[in-house]
Amino acid sequence: MTYCVGLKLDRGLVCMSDTRTNAGIDNISVFRKMFIWETEGERSITLMTAGNLATTQAVVSLLNERSKPAEDRGAPSILEAPSMFQVARLVGETLREVIRDQSGIEGPQADSPFSATLILAGQVRGGEPRLFLIYPEGNFVEAADDTPFFQIGETKYGKPILVRAYHPGMSFEEAVKLLMLSFDSTIKANLSVGLPLDLHIYEADTFRTGIVRRIERDDAFFESISSGWGEALREAFSHLPDYSLS
């Protein structure tokens, strides 16, 4: 399983993904699930993937192939699309193409064993930062004020803290802390999600790759956030009134 989150803030976009891939409890591997493309000064694009590993790797490989010079590819490129909406269309079409080819049927189904779901984040000059959730069928929805973040993979354990603590005006530092808490809750509840974590912070209107970091298993800040959050929850719980049995 996987866990990836994309947040849309007033200041830009923050993306975080885990790296654990498993085919049973005795076959656990680390694979990158976050991919970044840029044309400095013109666009920055981040893609996070969840689902069948062969499918997601094929999608990323095709997007890379189609980012080569025009004479070497023969298909539209996400580095040339005029807007993030058009980038989302190209990524969705590529996902449909891969699922169709791998499954050998026309029209991919959401419950296909070759299924994958993607989060796309970025900005193209002339537009604002945008965040999309792309489904296996190739269609997509965009983050808005009512839905300012997207999750894919093992989403249920890390969602409550996002719903309660997120606000669009928060700083990048606060956003990273919030995402770490969301991932910590998920990791503690589900062994199929695990560190290292990949992080990309994109600042609006910079049109280049921002801060990119890998949070390893021995990361001191992540450990302090995890232990501090556990202690804070226990302290808050102890101050709540007890239920009356009388």
Describe this structure as you would to a colleague.
The protein is an alpha+beta fold. A hairpin with a 5-residue loop joins strand 8 (130-134) and strand 9 (140-142). The chain has a five-stranded antiparallel β-sheet, with helices on one face. A five-stranded antiparallel β-sheet has the order 5-6-7-8-9, with helices on one face. The model has no long low-confidence stretch (mean pLDDT 93). The protein has five helices and twelve strands.
Structural key phrases:
28% strand; 32% helix; 246 residues; 5 helices; globular; alpha+beta; single chain
Question: In a few lines, what is going on in this structure?
Answer:
The chain is α+β, with helices and mostly antiparallel strands.
Please tell me how large the radius of gyration is: 19 Å
Oligomer: single chain
The helix/strand class is alpha+beta
Major sheet size, sense and barrel closure = 5 strands, antiparallel
Report mean pLDDT, rounded to a whole number.
93
Number of strands: 12
In order across it, which strands form the biggest sheet? Answer: 10-1-2-11-12
Helix content: 25-40%
The rounded distance between the terminal residues' Cα atoms is 45 Å
Task: Provide the low-confidence segments as ranges.
Answer: none
Discrete helix count: 5
Write the layout of secondary structure elements.
Blueprint: E1 3-8, E2 12-18, E3 20-22, E4 28-30, E5 34-39, E6 43-51, H1 53-65, H2 84-103, E7 116-124, E8 130-134, E9 140-142, E10 149-153, H3 159-165, H4 172-189, E11 197-203, E12 211-215, H5 220-239
Antiparallel strand pairs: 1-2, 1-10, 2-11, 3-4, 5-6, 6-7, 7-8, 8-9, 11-12
